Amino acid sequence: MLVPNFIFESDQADELQRVIKKYAFTLGLLQLPSSMFKDQQFAKSIWIIQKRGPNVRQPGQALLAEMPSFSNREAMIEMMKSIDNWFKEEGFPNILRWQPLTIMRFYALVQ
Q1: Sheet architecture: strand order including 63-66
Q2: Which of 7, 93, 107, 109 has its CB 3.0 to 4.6 Å from that of 3, i.e. a possible disulfide?
Q3: What is d(CA 60, CA 109) in angstroms, rounded to the nearest whole number?
């Protein structure tokens, strides 16, 4: 879900956190590069949440990352590797992890 960076600082942050804790798990929060936004008040993050269910578990450590500039190919490749390692370490099935073809397509975008 794409959210404003200040979502947890708003007047409704406590209510939001209460609802999320009741119905979902936060898997991660990826802050998009500030260079993507003309004004920091419009900066966004990708909030990765999953609805609670019988076969759903909360990760031991949420994935928290500040994404590098998409024009910095080497930093982006390293970030993708780190994200993939997080999925492996947390024991998520292959279907949830970054697939090699997806990573290769992403690499092509940042060239």
Answers
A1: 2-4, 44-51, 24-31, 63-66
A2: 7
A3: 31
